[in-house]
Amino acid sequence: MSDEVYPTPAGAPAPPETGGAPYAECVLCREPTEYPESYRGVTMCPRCAWQEAQRGACSG
Ligand SMILES: [Zn+2]
Q1: For 2-17, what is each residue's pLDDT tens digit?
Q2: For a FRET experiment, which of 5, 28, 45, 48 has its CA 20 to 30 Å from that of 56?
Q3: CB within 8 A of 8, min separation 6: which ones?
């Protein structure tokens, strides 16, 4: 068994534990995220979160 995890953008907060609850959808691509449905705020999957981080870094 391995402990592989998604690479997270620098400075990104760690997703909260879902406790087995359903995952919220990514606001960009509708893929399941690591966030629970009860999470208040924008939920993005690791891939979109990474892309957003890159965009932010490039726009100055
Ligand atoms: Zn996404």
Answers
A1: 677 666 667 767 777 7
A2: 5
A3: 14, 46, 49
Residue 34, classed as helix, strand or coil, is: strand
Distance 36 CA to ligand 1 centre (A): 15
Asked whether residue 30 carries a pLDDT value surpassing 90, the answer given is yes
What is the DSSP-derived secondary structure letter of residue 36? Answer: E
Cα of 46 vs centre of ligand 1, distance in Å, is: 7
Domains contained in the chain, number: 1
Q: Is residue 6 part of a domain?
A: no
3 CA to centre of ligand 1 in angstroms: 22
